[in-house]
Amino acid sequence: MKKLIPILLSIFISSSTFAQHYGNALGLRLGNSNLNRTVGLSYQHRIQKNITLEGILQSDFARNTTAHLLIEQHRPILSKRLNYYYGTGLSLGSEESFLKNEQNKTIVHTYGNSTVGVDFILGLEFTVLKTVVSFDYKPNVNLTGRSEFFRGQAGFTARMVITKSKEQKRKQRQKAKAKRKASGESFSDRFNSLFKPSN
Fold first, then answer.
1. Where is the composition biased (Basic residues) (predicted)?
2. Where are the domains of the chain?
3. Which site among 107, 172, 189, 197 is 20 to 30 Å from 59 CA-CA?
4. Which residues, other chains included, contact 163 with Cβ-Cβ below 8 Å and sequence gap of 6+?
5. What mean pLDDT, rounded, does the chain reach?
6. How far apart are CA 19 and CA 75, in angstroms?
7. Burial 57-81 (b: 16+ CB within 10 A, else e)
8. Is the distance from CB of 122 to CB of 135 less than 8 angstroms?
9. What's the gap between Cα 15 and its chain centre?
10. Which pTM does this prediction carry?
11. How far is CA 14 from the centre of its chain?
């Protein structure tokens, strides 16, 4: 056991610089709350090292359809293939609402409410065979359009990797190189031109 601990620590330290094994991924998300079950699409795109944007479009095909945009920070657990992540974002949608009247013990049920809210997310993901499998909890705080202030949703998502992280980095380097070549001068040339005397 004493020999195993240093090995695990070295694996964790060596993998701490990699918190994702993909550049972008698209797939299916199943959501579950005490109100309904939803089916939707999820798309994740890495925008910086260990940071992704996730777009979710989901519906229960009855009275609730929502769109979500989240920014997420990824952290490795022993390997770049296993991560936990957390983040926040905004949501828009058309949702049903339940307003309780404590005086006469009634509930007013409305639907088709245009809603705006703030999302939070905490999840765990695993990448294997070009597939990203994740479990998350996504609470939503309503800003307008719904009587309930808070709703929580648990989700299971399976995404196919479209671009691996190495491929994405290579494409970004190629674009940057092509852009520099198209401009006809290097950064050092542009920098030096700042100090040249004007005629």
1. 167-181
2. 4-184
3. 107
4. 22, 23, 24, 171
5. 83
6. 5
7. ebbbeebbbbbbebebebebeeebb
8. no
9. 21
10. 0.74
11. 24
Whose tokens are 């809210």? That residue is: 117
Pair of tokens at residue 154: 């648990």
Q: What integer pLDDT is reported at residue 33 of this predicted model?
A: 94
Backbone angles phi, psi at 66, to 5 degrees: -135, 155
- C-alpha distances in angstroms, 61 versus 15, 42, 57, 131, 138? 42, 17, 12, 26, 20
* Residue whose token pair is 């998350």: 136
Q: d(Cα 177, Cα 149) in Å, to the nearest integer?
A: 49
85, two tokens: 């992540």
Tokens of 117: 């809210």
Q: Do residues 19 and 48 make contact, with C-beta atoms less than 8 angstroms apart? A: no
Q: What is the pLDDT of residues 41-96, one digit of tens each?
A: 999 999 988 999 999 999 999 999 999 999 999 999 987 789 999 999 999 999 99
Tokens encoding 45: 């795109």
Gap between the Cα atoms of 118 and 137, Å rounded:
14
Spatial distance between the Cα atoms of 62 and 113, rounded to a whole number of angstroms: 13
- Token pair 């800003």 is found at 143
